[in-house]
Amino acid sequence: MRQEYIDMLPALKPEDVPFEPGKSATFFILRQAKADEYWIAETPEEKHLSAFLAVVAEPIGENRQRFHVMTIVNYKHWTGPVYFNTIRPFHHLVVSRMAQAGVSSRKN
């Protein structure tokens, strides 16, 4: 099961992240967002699964925030768990790297 839309992900800068529902951020489609609070996006329609990515900001004082990153996967077909369990070992690495990139770009 090859994901046709994930050939090469472009580098995404903070100013390029959309906040208008329906807009694209790499291969995600923004569903709902509120600046400095939350950002929820979904993968394009697939027959075997749908996946959501959410980032929620938690104020922790002194102009600081903690970010909670969540992924939710809904299996639609028996191939969904097969596909996701194949990529599962890499999923945490990818999400972790994305979060680190967000933190480092915020410091610059």
What does this entry look like structurally?
The protein has one domain. It is 27% helix and 36% strand. The chain has one helix at 79-107, and strands at 24-25, 28-34, 38-42, 49-61, 64-75. It has a 5-stranded antiparallel sheet. The protein is globular, with a radius of gyration of 15 Å. Residues 1-7 have low confidence and may be disordered.
Q: Structurally, how many domains make up the residues?
A: 1
Quote the average pLDDT.
Answer: 81
Helix content: 25-40%
Low confidence ranges: 1-7
Distance between the ends: 38 Å
Descriptive key words:
108 residues, alpha+beta, 27% helix, disordered N terminus
Kindly summarize this structure in a few lines.
By secondary structure, the chain is an alpha+beta fold. It has one helix spanning 79-107; strands at 24-25, 28-34, 38-42, 49-61, 64-75.
